[in-house]
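[job 0412] stage=fold_complex status=start
inputs:
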Amino acid sequence: MSMHEHDETIAMLRGIAADGREATGADVANAMHVGRKIRRRRRAAQAVGSGFVLSAALGVIVVANGMSGQGIEVVPASPAAPPATGDAKPTPGTATAEAKRAVPHQDGNVALLAEALGPDFRPAAEQPGEGDLNLNPASPSAAGLGSGYAAGARIDVFDPADGFSVESACKPTAEEGVHGSECRAVKLDNGRVVQVQDNRTVPGEWKAARSSSAAGVWDSEMLYFARADGTFVRIEFFAHETTQRPAAAQQEVSDKWLTSYIPQLATVAADPRVNPRAAAAADSRVHVTDHDRDQAILQRALGGSFSLLDGTVQLEPGSEKAAELPDGTYSATAELSKISSAAFHAACDAKAGLTACETKTLDDGTVVHLRSWADRDATDSEMLGESAVYLVREDGSVLLANLEVNGRNVSATDADKHATTVRQWLGSLQDALITAVTDPDVVGAPATS
Amino acid sequence: VGQQHEHDAEFAAFVHATRRRLCALAYLVCGDRDRAEDVVQTALAQVYARWSNIRRDEGPHKYVHRAVVNAAIDERRRPWRREQAAERLPDRAAPVEDGLTLRVIDALSALPPRQRAVVVLRYIEDLDVERTADLLGISPGTVKSQAAKGLEALRGLLGATAPIGHEAA
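[job 0412] stage=fold_complex status=done
writing structure:
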């Protein structure tokens, strides 16, 4: 019997009864439903990736900015950006096997981070906080951050098997009121390229369904470095409120403080000593498309109840708008895309059994075409609903902002009640779709799905 | 199609066998029941998405265990952003927790995320040092030191006494 078995604290830990609830058929069905979506997304991403490799021979444009004096420069993160000056030959077909052998060595990685950030940042065991390293509030560095905020840093090495990639992380994101920019590429003196993403909270945007209190500010710089073995390094350098609702100006101070650390953080992300040892990826570019940018415009219009992750706008479970739907089996996705004129006419023209789309003239004279419906599919007891807003632009192209909602296990008895609620719900978001489709910044790209 | 049905049946059995324990684990690490449910559901969806590979390689138990623990300590869904004031009652019954459980969970929430995960895995899940290190991607030495520091902090928070000649791990 080991000594710790006599420890009263351990006995208390072992005595607790924090049990979860038993699984239900709905849990299994939900997991399968979402799992199939993940599988489809992965297949789509693989198809995009294969085309992406072919574009690697495009030209080189390097744009230096104000950071160049600190040993780094920023290059465009577009598909036309330069191939990275990776220091390893690509090894097709071996990435998966190497990644499987990769075992993170977290302690050494944190030590590298600590070396770069200096003594004002301490390990979590010495300075409690949310990071692997946390800022000592009494240190000189904390004075620059300002009052009401705490800061810290985390470093992780991800395996592609985690289902998470630099490519997907670097697209514009939005989740629970925190908006992530598309990545910008930061080039180090040694030629290595690190992707940097700014994450900024829009105070008050996110409200959970079961609470009246708004979430506080959590801003961060996320740095990603892709490596030849398929793994990638992520550093999260964050500052967050420690008190509710400090002045908005304080967030600006905090954000400037965060960005001032990017040079040394980028150096750590690309440090070859980060374990498991791996060279830089041969191609470090990320592919942020016009469609990804249009999705960000759509998410902003729909508001904080919708997230944007990996180019997909989805209703966030637990959000205010999710709570307005009939039950927890409902999900919703939205997309803003360019469609063909033929597809528009097929969807909106009157034909046998189908009326024409409703037409609405906005205050500025813009005309949009609307269709909204909700109905139960008797074959699989799903409630389906859709709200579509079409805009025919001056050049003849057609934009579609589309919101689809789906609920499962709806009985015939409940069908009418659910359909009414879903139609009202779609109606409440129609103005947001109109705002998105008429936004002058929308480029208009074909749908990805 | 036949193979897919077989996989679906295997997966359903796996969910029924593991979900309850996974939710408890996620709850202890993140301290929020709703978030724990989300974390487990997401991890199970990921397991289903790659069921064929996972059952062939490291096995679903290890994969899902790691996915749940890492997601529960991932600060991208920050525990400090948890909402405090409940306007409405939860729409499902939460398991009954006794006073000791609530006290311990409250104390656990005061530990840094990774330290909390170490304590939960070592002393509640009863994993050995090596398995805990493997799941969290840290060295066995760090597991031992974090476990010792975590217990020391909990001792202060819970008012428990240290055993004579105490050895944390």
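[job 0412] summary: Chain A touches chain B through 69 residues (CB under 8 Å).
[job 0412] exit 0
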